[in-house]
Amino acid sequence: MPHALDGMTVLELASYVSGPYAGMLLGDLGAEVIKIEDPKTGDPFRGWGAADYSATFGSVNRNKKSVILDLKTSEGIAAARALAEKADVIIENYRTGTMDRLGLGWDELSKANPRLIYCSITGFGGTGPYAQRPATTPSARPWGRCCRC
After folding, report:
1. Order of all β-strands in the sheet with 64-68
2. What span, in angstroms and rounded, lies between the C-alpha atoms of 136 and 105?
3. Mapping DSSP to helix (H, G, I), strand (E, B) and coil, where does residue 36 land?
4. Burial bucket for residue 125 (CB in 10 Å: 0-12, 13-18, 19+)
5. Domains and CATH numbers, the chain
6. In this predicted model, what pLDDT tens digit does every residue of 57-101 receive, in sequence order?
7. What's the Cα-to-Cα distance from 39 to each of 36, 89, 124, rounded to whole Å?
8. pTM here?
9. What is the CA 90 to chain-centroid distance, rounded?
10. 52, exposed or middle or buried, with CB in 10 Å at 0-12, 13-18, 19+?
């Protein structure tokens, strides 16, 4: 049976939950999702859980292909850029400004791929006093007032 997003390609440069969850939803709708992972650690969420397997990682990364690229090298960035130029959608959840510094931000990639949809997920917005802070569960809980501090 055909899916709504059959034929679409999503490039996911994201780890833990927020970005991978977005990629999971698009993959569930038929998109081909290519997840880029670090060669040393992969997605850090892989090892959370019993016996070095994270059920949450498995759940939010279903229906995806995984590619190992070192974004700290020019070769890795060039390979990611080549994938991005053919993608329909990019999902990233790095700290604000990281993708721009790598040459993989919206301004650069949209020149080579004007039809690109670029989804940038940040914990504290793209501007403002907290834009550079990482969004992790411990850093987000106090803001949501779901724990005593």
Report:
1. 64-68, 32-37, 9-13, 89-92, 117-120
2. 22
3. strand
4. exposed
5. 9-144 (3.40.50.10540)
6. 889 999 999 999 999 999 999 999 999 999 999 999 998 999 999
7. 9, 23, 28
8. 0.88
9. 8
10. exposed
